[in-house]
Write a structure and sequence with these properties.
Radius of gyration: 25 Å
Protein name: DUF4364 domain-containing protein
Order of helices and strands: HHHEEHHEEEHHH
CATH superfamily of the largest domain: Winged helix-like DNA-binding domain superfamily/Winged helix DNA-binding domain
Strand order of the largest sheet: 3-4-5
CATH class of the largest domain: Mainly Alpha
Number of strands: 5
Largest sheet: 3 strands, antiparallel
CATH topology of the largest domain: Arc Repressor Mutant, subunit A
Number of helices: 8
Organism: Ruminococcus albus SY3
Oligomer: single chain
InterPro entries: DUF4364
Structural class: alpha+beta
Length: 203
């Protein structure tokens, strides 16, 4: 593997005076190396710019430069295009990562983890909203691999409320599942208090 001794070689000639774009290139290369997962162009754009970590114009300039200088390449897998870090990119990411502050490196990595966790959740959960009597039934099935973790049906009086229930669960299905399990574990048999018993005797 070739070692990059000069950070100027990590960027294209046309970008050598653009310090911020250069730092964005290092940040993106670091992220792709650390996350160890292929990213589509749309996913990487969302991760880098969606939370304001990187300015969109700096991001697009950095991506163009990285494609030009060979630190990333476009790989097509099963009809979908992904950005993939090259050996040059991996070497540069490791050699120059400290030129970008750790807080930014941690922030983009966390942003990527959140996005991929959300995508996985969306893939693992399915909904079925169907008419039921005078209202609607919201079927929710949560799967992890070959195992069905939860298969639950909830009733809503109308379609708007059914879709609202669906959207709320979809926002964070893992948290919803954990809350259901916690409630089941903590649920106890109802035992009337002495005061309630006395009130009932009055009637």
């Amino acid at each position: 593997m070739a070692t990059i001794n000069n950070p100027e070689n990590f960027i294209s000639g046309s970008m050598k005076n653009v310090t911020e774009v250069y730092r964005v290139q290092i940040l993106l290369a670091y992220f792709l190396s650390r996350i160890n997962q292929l990213c589509t162009p749309n996913q990487l754009t969302e991760i880098a710019t969606g939370e304001g970590i990187v300015n969109y114009f700096d991001y697009t300039a950095a991506i163009s430069a990285m494609l030009e200088n060979g630190t990333i390449e476009v790989a097509e897998i099963e009809g979908t295009e992904y950005y993939r870090l090259t050996e040059k990119g991996k070497s540069g990411a490791e050699s120059f990562k400290k030129q970008v502050e750790k807080s930014l490196r941690d922030k983009i990595y966390a942003s990527g983890l959140r996005l991929f966790a959300q995508l996985k959740s969306e893939m693992d959960i399915s909904f079925d909203v169907t008419p039921e009597g005078s209202g609607f039934n919201v079927g929710c099935r949560y799967i992890d691999g070959d195992m069905t973790l939860m298969d639950i049906n909830l009733y809503a009086p109308d379609e708007d409320q059914a879709n609202f229930i669906k959207s709320k669960i979809k926002m964070n299905p893992t948290d919803f599942y954990c809350r259901v399990i916690d409630y089941i574990i903590e649920n106890e048999e109802y035992v009337p208090s002495v005061a309630e018993g006395e009130d009932m005797m009055l009637f």
